[in-house]
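User: Could you write out the 3D structure of this protein bound to S-adenosylmethionine? I've included everything you need below.
Assistant: Certainly. Input first, then the structure.
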Amino acid sequence: MRKLYVIGIGAGDPDQVTVQAIKAMRQVNVFFMIGKGAEKQELVDVRSAILTEHLRHPYRVVEILDPPRDRTVPGAGADTEYRGVVADWHEQRSELLERAFADTDGVGGILVWGDPSLYDSTLRMIERVLERERMHFDYEVIPGITSVQALAAAHRMVLHEIGEPVHITTGRRLREEGVASGQSTLVMLDGDCSFTQVPGDDIYIWWGAYLGMPDETIVEGPLRVVEHRIARRRAALREAKGWIMDVYLLRRNG
Ligand SMILES: C[S@@+](CC[C@H](N)C(=O)[O-])C[C@H]1O[C@@H](n2cnc3c(N)ncnc32)[C@H](O)[C@@H]1O
């Protein structure tokens, strides 16, 4: 039976690639790169550099261009419709993956940014391909260092207070739900500096952008003191590079 490896490659630092990931990559004959076409060249370069550095055997790279996604449906307050749009998009992506895998031979591999378990649709796509029962293959997940871990390491911090929970969410949800007391809130996928919309004078923020990459930037402090500095810094970095990825933790004091 054919095999497909889903390999977490870490959040940007090529040194975060694990020995297990390298061993899996060395089994792969064809890598599927799923992206937007206009994907930031730097992110493509990180993946290519990882392959060049660790592999000596012949392999192919097949690019799968993302189908366009309906961005007219608002995320906030329209959950059912929003989920429908995302489900359609996953369906189309999984069709493309199925076709690409069927058109090739040997062991397949998909390199996933960070870890496949966190805000990544690769595993959902593969489940859809298998549910259609047109193809039969085995797949294995190799875990990677997430941006969450990269943030914690960069700030040399523990994500939660002793015995307390961590809530991982998106910028959209943060705007709707805020920060609960007694809980640390980790926010990903926030293009809007949603932390500026969270009420309260007792919140601390640990923020990080381009973690593990040459432009890594971190800021921490009381939210009301540093929020505008972070927003300005974020805008300037985004302007200079043309793209940004950032993640942050919010926690109410004591
Ligand atoms: C589509 S999600 C993928 C998350 C990934 N699977 C992971 O394990 O980190 C993309 C989001 O992850 C966060 N992210 C990923 N890499 C990052 C990095 N190097 N620095 C800062 N944030 C990052 C950002 O919040 C970004 O919006």
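The radius of gyration is 19 Å.
User: Perfect, thank you.
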